[in-house]
Amino acid sequence: MPPLFRPFSAQTTCNICGSTEFTRGNLTRRPDIPPPQCSRCRSVERHRLIRELYMPLRPLVKDWRAFQFAPDRSVEPNWFQSFRSSIFEDASRVDMMEIPFGDGAYDIVISNHVLEHVSDDIRALRETLRVVGATGIVHVCVPSPIYRWETEDWGFPDPRNELHYRHYGADFPMRMRGAIPNSLCVSVTGVDPVTGSTDNVYFFSYSAATLQLVARQFQHFAIPVARFW
Ligand SMILES: [Zn+2]
What we know:
Blueprint: E1 22-23, E2 37-38, H1 45-54, H2 58-61, E3 65-69, E4 82-86, E5 108-112, H3 121-131, E6 137-141, E7 152-158, E8 164-167, H4 172-179, E9 184-191, E10 198-205, H5 208-220, E11 225-227
Parallel strand pairs: 3-4, 3-5, 5-6
Antiparallel strand pairs: 1-2, 6-10, 7-8, 9-10, 9-11
The chain binds zinc ion (ZN).
């Protein structure tokens, strides 16, 4: 049996590049949180906690075809059977609301801090679910939904809010599920090994069996999972 509690002790080594130097940068954070940005690879909390979360998933994803919107250092391309990505700043970027891939073209689609930049996030998630077919999963991380009660969507890319269309709230998984018939979701809570900050990653799928497989990998290592159906 894995230990039920994993006591947190901040490590001062970046789990992505091995650097021990961190800065505050110009990031908005609570003053009592240790400097969050790695001086070498520029990673912040979410990159490192997602990387931690993928350690138990690697035996599964090695057979999966992956696509990532806005690639970052949270996952490595060589963890997957194949890996493609679309860079947000590129003119040739893949439009998340109209993805030019067939049904089931990938086993996993990953997007970290992308959905808040998309005008119709429900359409975007429906499209990504189509692309992973009946048995694949969509990994979504959005800014801090667990620290706000309800999603607030103002309908335009607000320059005062980093060009986001909305703030996500704790209703995020149910809001998406409610709008996309038969979609299912589990969330998992990760901890950044450098600052101790927590954040959720959401896995959406049409397959209860795939989500159960993923959830059990986390639960085996005492990583908190919530199930939204
Ligand atoms: Zn680093």
